[in-house]
């Protein structure tokens, strides 16, 4: 039985997979079982920030493998501490909690936003406002935080304590600020919800409300973080200072890792025994992440922005394109064709792209994708969209 047959027989059917088995790759060029080549415009949904089998990442991970692969969090490890320092230096945040995924990071953010409020104000101040079309994870609590009704069906009862505001609706947001609210949680660009940009005015209103009411700002940077939008974190495009930032995906370069970054208000909120994660801050995942974070400097971020501008300028010339949203190398293309059909046709021609809802093609290429790979992929995408 081949890989697809084994998968269909033995793996729970939680994914509608494309009809391809990826076996190897280098950079943004991948290969399937038959040796067919694909240009990768998805980077594992924003995970392989430096592409497949990046030399520096591979070296960092394999060197750590020969030292120690795991200890419990009862002990100190060098990679974990160094990574935390790097993240705080990039963001001016105060300290970090490490977990294994974006969903776990968002769980931690929710948990400690409520703890901060409880410690300071007592019971009855635990509601978190999130945005319609947001996506914060697939655990019961992060599904509850997710502002999409399609996720609020099968798995009830859901965790209470969330209410949902339309993105960019300042008047509606202000009406939702009641005495029970402890935090506002948002993505600067809603990825799974359709690559929807928040307006600068709306984000600034969140900041104003947060400062006036001691309501925490939680920014979900699971997909938008680690250089994806042309800044280290997307919120830096809006000149705000969040109280909590979550991240994952591109941080690990391909290994599971998530992080919750705490600002000044929350630097002492996490106390021994209040939270934990068996694999959080794992030395191997942390070593890989260090090799990623160290390379995302101002020159690198400028190159991300330049590639973004190049892609937008090219796509804007194409027939059947109605709109381009997003920032940096997180882009959504609205066309008058079905996004799923576009993705399927691209796959057949040797290009991997993503979708967001029914009507948007989503691009999340590796941040260091070469212009040769970029142009090869754009040629295929243009052919399919203009068809």
Automatic annotation (TrEMBL):
GO molecular function, one term: N2-acetyl-L-ornithine:2-oxoglutarate 5-aminotransferase activity
This enzyme's EC code(s): 2.6.1.11
Keyword Amino-acid biosynthesis found: yes
Biological process, per Gene Ontology: L-arginine biosynthetic process
Gene3D superfamilies linked to this entry: Aspartate Aminotransferase, domain 1, Type I PLP-dependent aspartate aminotransferase-like (Major domain)
HAMAP family: ArgD_aminotrans_3
Stated name of the protein: Acetylornithine aminotransferase
Source organism of this protein record: Eubacterium coprostanoligenes
Gene that this polypeptide is encoded by: argD
